[in-house]
Amino acid sequence: MQFYSLTFLYFFLPGALLAYNLTQKAYKNWTLMAVSVLFFALAQPEHFLLFAASVAAQFVFSEAMRKSEEKTKTKKAIFTVAVAVNAAVMIAFSVRNQLTGAEIPLGTMVVAFTAIGYFADVYKGETEYIRSFADFSVFLGFFGKLYRGPLVRAGRVKESPNRNGFSLETTGEGLYLFVRGLAKLVLLAQPLEKMYEDLCDANLDRISVVGAWLSVITLGMMIFHDLSGFCDMARGLGLCFGMDLPKNFYFPFQSPSVTDFLDRFNMTVTAFFRHYVYDSLRTDEKSKLQLVVDTLLICMLCGVWFGIRMNYVLWGLYIAAFIIIEKLFLNKLLDRIPRFFTRIYTFCVTMFSMTIFSVDADIGIIRTFKAMFGMGAEGITDRVSYIVSENMLVLAVSAFFLTSVFSMLVGFINKKSKPTYSVFAVLETALLLVLITGELL
Q1: What is the pLDDT of residues 237-277, one digit of tens each?
Q2: Contact between residue 29 and residue 138 where contact means Cβ atoms under 8 Å apart
Q3: Which strand (E) or helix (H) includes residue 235?
Q4: In sequence order, what DSSP letters do the residues of 407-419 get, joined into one string?
Q5: CB-CB contact of 298 with 274 (8 Å)
Q6: Angle at which helices 209-240 and 339-357 cross, to 10°
């Protein structure tokens, strides 16, 4: 069972909401822990014991640190082991995935990164220990954020009104956000993935300028709608189950600079590395060398978040190079240029980065680069023309939802008239459910 299944949508989720809202506040996290455990057991039964053992081990480390609070050396040793174990688990599964193609178990990266952040915070005294096993399990392993995050820090997640009792408004808002995220995944990301695969096959046979550019742009849109769709679903489920999770994407491809793009793309991951790596290593000296080193480090780590592969590291270095150039030379110029043109500049730079991020290995990055600029490639092939004609609607809708136009429209309606917004949200949710159901049948 997955988020994007009719079983989850029409059976598991309603049952989970009913159980959660019938539970008294003092026991809600126990119910939510049970729901998360059941979801994982149904989603990936082959990795269930690993998931349960991981969460339990994190709690053991947490309690060991708490009970050693007055013993500095012991506490430091436990902290070091906890961080090392989580880092080793992430590296091991990432390398295994790259070498054998075996999937990384659900939630491995999210749980490990969240745990490392938690251990660092309690070690430095920036947050309190979570002493309840149910609270700790929900913090680490809430089923809504196991796929793509967002990453959260202990004590930084606000409670939604559903924590104190059933709220029709909050539940409705959460379900609305969840369905919109599910629509991004099912109606946009998955068709884009199929189109990207078709374009790669076409380019492998006879690469063309249009085919090369479209494969890169399609990949960029697919990654955005996939990642942001999962995070919207996580935030929506969070609202339904008493948690106000942070945003993770804010229309990154319409950013006015590459620096701003990094701040809008996978926001909680960028914030994680800035807080736990950049802030920890930063000195008072404000030198250009430090700026370069810090930017390279943060961007490379943001690339490695997607997996331990050289092209992910190169993607981080590519983004870092433009950020460094902007901060050292271009910021004043970008401030004077009309926003429309700076957004075009950022869109081109960031979409171009998708060539490095993930291009079919049989085609190769260099061959794709050359084809994009007409070197050794024809303009367009009949096969690419057919693929475009078959996917024109998906391309147009996907491109539209890369922008904030629809979000601004919905926000305007909400600001002007709450009743109109409520009717609009209900109608949109119903329409999307019909389209999603039809796609999944």
Answers
A1: 999 999 999 999 999 999 999 999 999 998 998 888 888 87
A2: yes
A3: helix 209-240
A4: HHHHHHHHHH-HH
A5: yes
A6: 100
Q: Is 301 left (phi over 0), alpha (psi -120 to 50) or beta?
A: alpha
Distance CA 359, CA 311 (A): 9
Q: What is the length of the chain?
A: 441
Q: What is the distance of C-alpha 397 from the center of its chain?
A: 21
Residue 361 has pLDDT above 80, yes or no: no
Output the six-digit token pair for 390. 């078959």
Tokens found for residue 408:
């601004």
What are the structure tokens assigned to 91, written together? 């590296």
CB neighbours of residue 97 within 10 Å: 16
How far is 311 from 317, CA to CA, in rounded Å?
10
Nearest to 113 by CA among 143, 147, 83, 78: 83
Q: pLDDT by residue (tens digit) across 283-322? A: 555 677 778 888 888 888 888 888 777 788 888 999 999 9
Contacts with 62 (C-beta within 8 Å, 6 or more apart), sequence order: 118, 119, 122, 129, 130, 136
**What pTM, to 2 d.p., does this model score?**
0.91
Phi, psi of 167 (to 5 degrees): -125, 115
- Alpha-carbon distance values, 144 to 46, 255, 260, 274, 340 (Å): 19, 28, 27, 24, 36
Q: What are phi and psi of 106, to 5 degrees?
A: -50, 130
Reported as a pLDDT band with limits 50, 70 and 90, residue 359 is: low
What one-letter code names the amino acid at 141? G
Q: Give the closest residue to 2 by CA, choosing from 243, 182, 221.
A: 182
**Mean pLDDT, rounded, for 90-110:** 86
> What's the pLDDT at 305?
82
pLDDT digits (tens, 9 = 90+) for 188-221: 999 999 999 998 888 877 888 898 889 889 999 9
Q: Are 203 and 363 in contact (CB under 8 A)?
A: yes
Q: How confident is the model at residue 45 (pLDDT cuts 50, 70, 90)?
A: very high
d(Cα 93, Cα 228) in Å, to the nearest integer?
23
Determine the Cα–Cα distance for residues 399 and 397; give it in Å rounded to an integer: 5
What is the 3-state secondary structure of 103-169?
CCCCCHHHHHHHHHHHHHHHHHCCCCCCCCHHHHHHHHHCHHHCCCCCCCCCCCCEECHHHCCCCHH
Rg of the chain over Cα atoms, rounded to whole angstroms, equals: 23
DSSP string covering 182-233: HHIIIIIIHHHHHHHHHHHHHHHHS-BHHHHHHHHHHHHHHHHHHHHHHHHH
